[in-house]
Amino acid sequence: MGMNVGSSGAKSADPEPMMEMNMTPLIDVMLVLIIMMIITIPKQNHSVNLNMPVGNPPPPTKEPVPCHPRSEAGQRGGPS
User: Fold this and answer.
1) What is the spatial distance between Cα 29 and Cα 59, in angstroms, rounded to a whole number?
2) What is the DSSP letter of 74?
3) Distance (Å, rounded) from C-alpha 31 to C-alpha 60?
4) pLDDT of residue 34
């Protein structure tokens, strides 16, 4: 992959199109992705300890209110 500096032919001839893919942007993107993976993968392995409650939840203190469209609670000035 050398640099194309031109031909030694006539100067009036059209230059030939470069048929090689430019690898520098591809390598740059791949290096950035590798660095991001190296930084983020160790942080995913750490766990967070949570103090979760143990046992059964307490019983409800109030009677639940039904929320049916035809119930009395739905006809007390609610949106229709």
Assistant:
1) 57
2) G
3) 57
4) 95
CA 7 to chain centre: 48
**Which tokens go with 43?**
């942080």
Burial category of 74 from C-beta neighbours within 10 Å (exposed 0-12, middle 13-18, buried 19 and up)? middle
Tokens describing residue 4: 């194309």
DSSP for 11-50, written as a single string: TTSPPPPP-S--HHHHHHHHHHHHHHHHHHHHHHT-----
The residue whose two tokens read 């740059």 is: 28
Query: What length is written for the chain?
Result: 80
Rounded Cα distance between 47 and 22, Å, is 42
Band of the pLDDT at 59, cuts 50, 70, 90?
A: confident
